[in-house]
Amino acid sequence: MKTKGAILRGAGRDWEIEEFDLGDPIAGEVQVRIAASGLCHSDHHYRSGDRNPPFFPMLGGHEGSGVVTKVGPGVTTVEEGDHVVLAFTPACGICGPCARGMQHLCDKGAAIGTGRAIADGSFRTTSGGSPVYAMALVGAFAPYVTVNSAAVIKIEKDIPLNRAALLGCGVCTGWGSATEAGGSRVGDTVVVVGCGGIGINAVQGAAHSGARFVIAIDPVEFKREQALAFGATHAFSSMAEAADRIRDLTWGQMSHVTVLTVGVMDGEMIQPALDLTAKGGTVVVTAVGPTDAGKTSIDLGMLSMLEKRIQGTIFGGASPRTQVPKLLNLYRSGSLKLDELVTRTYRLEDINQGYDDMLSGKNLRGVIEFSDADY
After folding, report:
1. What percent of the chain has pLDDT over 90?
2. What is the C-alpha separation between 312 and 314, in angstroms, rounded?
3. One-character DSSP codes across 25-56
4. Measured in whole angstroms, how far is the alpha carbon of residue 142 from the centre of its chain?
């Protein structure tokens, strides 16, 4: 079928709304009519040139929800009409990591950086006969997507799809960064550095886990104010500003969990984060940044003598198939804020404005909502 989407043709360029060809699902795949898609910073890394996709052009969007419209042969997990969340990390359920309970590290995830379909290594998104890279094999900045069934999670139909979309990345990644990768517990002190669409959910997760102090750090006043509304007990503009207050609050013990969820990661943030962290504590590195930002210098004594840990994470360290329904149940019970996360909604044609608003600190999460006119 022919459809349209927000396509990036090179670093430093705007998103352009273009027509492209979308293939029908083959064995193991489904087609989904997208209802909503979140504007995550991860897509912007390619626009800014911080990171390079495997190739351009790139169809953006990896945080989405919708309704199944077609089912390929052999798919038994969903059927036409089902409501689903799309996870940018597929979970086959049978590979080594999946068998060990680490479905967010599924071996099939190796394909998401290639643009080639998991099922047969070909391309479902093309333009003029040439391949278009669909972000994380999702490409949710379009009214329709064709994806592997391993990346589709069925949800109950009482959940608004324009809220469920946020579970495809930001909510699960942020919440899990504090609770799963960080292991925050009752009575802990948790520091969250960067309180945008992911960090604000790390704040929610830490508060829900029973942390005594949840300390939000962000240079943008709006985000600090929002963090306090989402469960933070204190808010500061920088790690340097927060350090003495954290020391006072904890009688010198510092934080049990420090989560780095900034918009653009820099390796030089690791040591200040370790300085905020207690003996035996964990620094969780969730944020990504420029390809060359991975180098850092740290005090090795903090690892060998103080048993501090540096923990990376993807999707918050939890299986999409367990985390998505669990968090939606918390939303249903009023324990998870989703409505309040959506600062503003946009039409697909306004995607560049949406990202400008994100970069200027106006949004926790901007969301593209599709209307009947888009299909």
Report:
1. 92
2. 7
3. P-TTEEEEEEEEEE--HHHHHHHHTSS--SSS
4. 18
Element (DSSP H or E) covering residue 206: helix 199-208
Distance CA(361)–CA(77), nearest Å, equals 39
- DSSP secondary structure string, 300-360? THHHHTT--EEEE-SGGGS-HHHHHHHHHHHHHHTSS--GGGEEEEE-GGGHHHHHHHHHT
At 354 the pLDDT is 97
Q: How far is CA 324 from the centre of its chain?
A: 12
CB neighbours of residue 199 within 10 Å: 31
Q: Which of 71, 51, 39 is nearest to 133 (CA)?
A: 51
262-302 pLDDT, tens digit per residue, is 999 988 999 999 999 999 999 999 998 887 766 788 999 89
- Collapsing DSSP states into helix, strand and coil, what is residue 84? strand
Place of tokens 């190739």: 55
Residue 225 has pLDDT above 90, yes or no: yes
d(CA 374, CA 360): 28
CA distance 88 to 168: 7
Query: What is the residue-wise DSSP string for 133-192?
Result: EEGGGT--SSSEEEEEGGGEEEE-TTS-HHHHGGGGTHHHHHHHIIIIIS---TT-EEEE
List, for residues 85-136, the tens digit of each pLDDT value: 999 999 998 999 999 999 999 999 999 889 999 999 999 999 999 999 999 9
Read off the amino acid at residue 120. Answer: D
Question: pTM for this structure?
Answer: 0.95
Any idea what DSSP says for residue 70? Answer: E
